[in-house]
Amino acid sequence: MSLTRTIPFEKYHGTGNDFIVVDADHPVPNRPAFATTYCDRDGGVTDADSETVGADGVLFLALESSYDPPRVVMTLVQPDGSVAAMCGNGARCAAAWARERTGAEEIMIDTPAGTRRATLDGDEVMVEMGIPSFAPRDVPLSREEPLVEERVEGLTVTAVNTGVPHAVAFVDSVEGVDLDAVAPPIRHADVFPRGANVTVASRADDGFRQRTFERGVEGETRSCGTGAVAVVAAAKRLGLVGDEEVRVSPPGGSLHIRVPDGAEATLRGPVVREFAGELEVVSTPEP
Hints:
Layout: E1 4-14, E2 17-23, H1 31-39, E3 58-64, E4 71-77, E5 83-84, H2 88-102, E6 106-111, E7 114-121, E8 124-128, E9 150-152, E10 155-161, E11 165-170, H3 179-187, E12 197-204, E13 207-214, E14 219-221, H4 225-237, E15 246-249, E16 255-258, E17 266-270, E18 272-282
Parallel strand pairs: 2-3, 4-6, 11-12, 13-15
Antiparallel strand pairs: 1-2, 1-18, 3-4, 4-5, 6-7, 7-8, 8-17, 9-10, 10-11, 12-13, 13-14, 15-16, 16-17
């Protein structure tokens, strides 16, 4: 017989990219099953009004408050049970969560893609995102040359790694793209041996509009931080922007990205703590 227990959680979102946040001090024996169960948009986690809301992933966060600045070990488990190497909006939410516990305005976040520094100012969080790479080994690609402005399964894309791989396509209007139809063939294309997130972007008066089909979510999210950075990195590679900060607007809000030469890209935007509660966890069977 298995013993059922509950653990506390909090719900955060960064421009609509939403996460269940669990303190890693509360053990979850089967993290993939936990994420698959509670991220489900139809039967997953519920809000304070008992409405099912689900999530784009579960952030398991281990706080090391003895460091200066404090450090957080971040593990993002996605709705399909996979672990994402990096998530820009997730890192921003992790920083906000850590500030609530430490009062610090600067947080170091350890991710599988490396350590990222976050700074906080009110409800805005800026996180360093590493240096975007177009190198085939880094994306990765199943070939020796970078993939820049080439047709892949119906769209002209540029491949870049911003912590996770993205195939970025610049289109006339993101609203006119049937993302659920066009993204999966690109996401699974042979040129991407580990798959890719698929991001479409279009010019706007104040920057770019963005939509992203996320690997691991296997659908569109309201915001994607690594995707927003990928848009600006690809735009810079194509000569569309320079070193200036660029506004990128996914459906969930606006993000501000800078991709300087030879230095860390940055991602800036708001974070909101939505609500908290308890979730059931099934422990390992009794002997």
